[in-house]
Design goal:
Among the domains are: about 1-115, no CATH class; about 175-270, Dihydrodipicolinate Reductase, domain 2 (2-Layer Sandwich), CATH 3.30.360. It has nine helices and 14 strands. The protein has helices at about 10-25, 45-55, 105-110, 155-160, 170-175, 175-190, 205-220, 275-285, 290-309, and strands at about 1-5, 35-40, 60-70, 75-85, 90-95, 120, 140-145, 170, 195-200, 225, 235-240, 245-250, 255-260, 265-270. An eight-stranded mixed β-sheet has the order 1-4-5-3-2-6-7-8, sandwiched between helices. A six-stranded mixed β-sheet has the order 10-9-11-12-13-14, covered by helices on one side.
């Protein structure tokens, strides 16, 4: 069911949501959280589609905040409500015009699900310097950004690291979950002492920087970043006294795990789509201290390299 409301108010949106649930035979609200998406018109389609797919696992109310012509003189709120299209969730697209776009939180607060967690997600490259201080970020227990979508990927990641608050995370960190799991499993087996490491990836890959920082912290050894043609992260090499432990993924799909004295093993290591990344972040709402440590190490190393230059 789709409902279009032009020149509307939050009260009218709430009434339309309640009426739509009754019409569809679902008067009870069974949502587990509210997801706020802060985006623009050009990126809203992919973001809403990812949220819709993620809501199959995490039924939620999706509030998509789209600023339109914030320099206009008159304020107006248009809403598009989607219920029961492809999942159990509710999606509301809020298009705000004029000065109202500068006060989006005043529109969003009345539409939050009562007594449920709130997650705010900035899918594009424009993210606040300190997400926790943003008006929509302050409403959330979890704040999700994506430095990879920014023009200056590494600079954006360093900025987010400097402004980190408990509850912040970034898709560049979520993208390396499977890499970290594979490497942790490989290192759980007996191996000789590791002296150094190397992460190979395309230029200015924030995920590769975070993976290298995480490995350096966990192993207590220097881990270099070297450039490859991609896509994404193409390999990790850990040097031991008896030979190298290598994970090689040249095509972004299948990786080969090589260990000294053991046969090579192929492992599925696909590059993850946005709905899968979002679904993982919606599973946990507690602070991610491991991401914090990795991001802080990267920012410190970046600042040190800039000082040496």
């Amino acid at each position: 069911m789709n409902i279009d409301l032009a020149g509307t108010s939050t009260r009218k949106i709430q009434d339309a949501l309640t009426e739509a649930r009754h019409v569809m035979g679902g008067p009870a609200v069974g949502m587990v959280l509210t997801l706020i998406i802060v985006t623009d018109e050009s990126a809203q389609y992919d973001a809403v589609r990812a949220a819709t797919e993620a809501s199959r696992e995490h039924p939620c109310r999706v509030l998509t905040v789209i600023s339109r012509d914030p320099r206009g003189n008159s304020s107006r709120l248009d809403a598009e409500i989607r219920i029961g299209e492809t999942g159990p969730g509710e999606t509301v697209l809020l298009r705000m015009y004029g000065p109202l776009a500068e006060h989006a939180d005043s529109v969003v607060v009345p539409l939050l699900m009562p007594d449920t967690p709130v997650v705010t997600w900035w899918p594009g490259g424009k993210v606040p310097k300190v997400p926790a201080k943003d008006p929509l970020g302050r409403l959330a227990q979890r704040r999700v950004t994506d430095a990879y979508a920014a023009r200056d990927r590494l600079g954006t990641l360093a900025q987010l690291a400097a402004g980190y608050r408990p509850g912040d995370t970034d898709f560049t960190w979520t993208r390396v979950t499977n890499w970290r799991s594979l490497l942790a499993a490989a290192l759980d087996q007996d191996h000789d002492e590791i002296g150094s490491g190397e992460v190979m990836a395309e230029p200015d890959s924030p995920s590769a920087e975070l993976l290298a920082a995480w490995l350096s912290i966990r192993l207590g050894v220097p881990v270099d970043r070297t450039v490859s043609e991609g896509p994404g992260i193409t390999g990790v090499r850990l040097r031991t006294t008896s030979g190298d432990i290598v994970v090689d993924r040249p095509d972004g799909r299948v990786a080969t795990l090589c260990r000294p004295g053991q046969p090579d093993r192929q492992v599925s290591l696909m590059r993850r789509p946005m709905p899968e990344l979002l679904g993982e972040e919606l599973r946990r709402l507690d602070p991610d201290e491991v991401y914090q440590d990795a991001a802080a190490r990267f920012a410190k190393d970046l600042a040190g390299a800039a000082g040496e230059a």
